[in-house]
Structure prediction request, 358 residues.
Amino acid sequence: MGKALLISGHGKNYNGTYDPGACSIFGQEAAYTRELVSMVSQSLGKAAGVEVYDQEKNCYSYSKAGQAPDYGGYDLVLEVHFNAKAKKDESGDGKFTGIGAYVHPDNVGGWAIAERIVDAVVSLGFGKWQISSSTGLLNLNKAQKAGTKYLLLETAFIDDGDDMRWYNANKTVVAQTIAQVISKEIGGITSDVAPTPPENSQAPGSSQVGTDKGYVPGMYKVHVKDLNIRTGPGTGNKIVGSITDQGTYTIVEMSGSWGRLKSGAGWINCSTKYCIRTGDANADGSGAEPEDHTKAFEVRVKINDLNIRKGPGTSYDKNGICPPGVYNIVETKAAGGYTWGRLKSGAGWIALEHTVRV
Ligand SMILES: [Zn+2]
Prediction:
C-alpha cells in the first residue's frame, strides 16, 4: 500500500504571522482547505496510509524557511487550495468557474490523478476550470525533484457565489469523491462512514449563505432509487409520494437539509446522501423539472379569508373566498413568490402557502 500526504494550503507562517489565503464573503481559504483535508482524511480512514501535514502550519512558509516535508517519503502529495477570480462574483452569475489544478508539466502521475479528481467532482454536477501546467510553485517543484506524484488542487473559486454555494452544499460528497480517487491510487480502502465537517469549521462569513449546513434552494438531482416525498420537513411528516426517476427537481425553500418541491408535491430530504445540488434555479424559479404538475392532491384550508383568484397570481381578479375545508388541487404554478393551486371545482386558484397538504 502506498503513502499519501495531504497539505492544507495557507495558514500560520513560520514567522508567526497568519496567511488566510484568498478571502470573500464566504470566508477564508485557509479555513476551507483545512476543513476539506480533514474530511478527505476522515473518509479515507486510518488504514489508508494517508498523512495530514500539520494544520497549524503554512507548508509553503515552512518550506521556504527550510522545513519542507520529505516528499520522497510519499507516493502522492495532494495540496488543497481554493482559487480566486480577477473579478469577484460573490453574488453569482448563474455560472460555475469550477474546479481545477496545477501540476508540473513532467509530473505524469500527478496529471493523471488531477484529471481523475477534477472529472469525478465535475460529474457530481460542478463546473470545470482547468488543469494548468506550472513550474513556478515551491512545493510543486520540491515534490517534482523528489520524484513524487503531486497536484495542487484548486477546489472551487472562493469569490464565485455559484461555486461556493454548490461547494458548501456538496462538500461531504466532494471529500468522499477525492478520497475514493486517492484510495484507488495508493491501494487503500475508504471507510464507509460519510465524513462530517469538523465542529467549528465553518469559515467566517460562510453563514451568510444558505441555511443549516449550507443547504440552499436550487436544482437537486436525486441519486437514490426511491426518495420519499413528505408533507413537511422531517421524517415525522406523512409520506405522500416518492421520487423514483433519479431526476432533477426544483427546491424553493429549505428547512435544514429538507427542501420543498416547487411543484407543491411536498418535501424531500436533500442531504448529499440522497441528492446532489446541480445549480441554482432559473431567475423565474423554473428549471428543467420532470415533476408531474398535473397530479391531483388534497389540501386543507384553515384560514377564513383565503381568496380564490381567476388565475395563478394576485394580479388576477378575485372569484370569492375559499372557506375552511379540504379541496382537490389539480395543477400548480409558481407566481409572485407563491405556489398556486387550481381547484378541481373550477372556481379558480388559491395560494397553497395558506394551506396544508392532507
Ligand atoms: Zn491558495
